[in-house]
Amino acid sequence: MLLQALIIFLFTVSASTAADWPQHLGPLRTGHSVEKDLIKAWPTDGLKVIWQVSGGVGMSGVAVQNSTLVTLIQKGDKQYAIALDAKTGKTKWKTAVAPQYNNAMGNGPRAFPAINSGRAFVFTGQGILAAVDLKTGTLIWKQDTIKEFKGKVADYGMAASPLIIGNLVTIITGHANGMAIAAYDVSSGKLQWQANFPDSIGYSCPAFLELAGEKQLVIFTGTHLRGLSTLGDPLWKYEYITPYDCNIVTPQLVDGDLFISSGEDHGAVRLKVTKSGTGYTIGEVWASQGRTSIMRNEWQTSIFSKGYLFGFDNIGGAGPITNLHCIDAKTGEISWKMPRFGKGNAIAADGKLFISMMDGNLIIANLNQKQYQELGREKITRGTRQAPTLSDGTLYLRDDESIYAIDVSGN
Hints:
mainly beta, globular, disordered N terminus, five-stranded mixed sheet, Lipocalin, 411 residues
């Protein structure tokens, strides 16, 4: 147990540097970067595009570590993990990891890569988990998780990004009787443990959070929020059923509590997890559900900052109307809203929100709890669901054709 605790501690303090964005939602999976001295005012001649290179089809995000950029794309009949030089956009390697994946809701890979231990870990649209050498692109190992557990692919494709904890890579996948969370050795790819549940798979990424005084794996399935030990032992559960089992966001800590939200006119809830003896109690601090909810995150994880949550409130069942809201996380009351803002995704750094929009615009706004303050916007991409990646003063974006590097440094 002491060794396990040491491994986890070393992981949390040394997995990345300030200039890295090695996994979904950044270094701590919160959507925040600690970078400072970024852009303060909108340039009179617009944002500087450092480079733009050809990419490929898919909804995977962009991971960066040690000036190496990794993402997943689909070209022709294959899905590839690719690595680019973060400064120049030059291709370092391109490795086929799976056959093509096609889906009515969009073709290609969905999941954000994870970089750790000199490897890039990628998860394909049909549920193949692969480890690739970060320097050379050599395929180290891969596991067809759906085949292994005799499960089936989620309706809209496998979207949960890998999570590295110590020497294990964990993933949410399909199981014969529902879904599973499984942990594999990062070096060998051998299965170390698995936990099976009757839930539908959902599309949320696992989180590693401190709740009730202990580190826990928190998974948001298609029907439940669940807490597990680092060995996969079930600890507690909270039912959260959404139409079409579309629970997508990553659970977030809000002053020691848990925050989750879903679209399809479902809503949001703040939960307190307490432990007494060996049992757990899950209590609602506040809940806002249904057609009048104050926060219905369709696929975008809200950003928590200084007691407030900034996020996208989607009206209706995957409907076209999306507001941008800032809510008081303590009470669940709206502080401000921007009606009909549009569909987008955001990260935070240096007191600002960096928002990539499905209409192709990149928007930068102040992270202000009292009012919406936009610095500016500019059309960059053909449209994307992915939030930007921030590394060393550069934002990285992608669409179905290209990958972009945008200068947002304060220089």
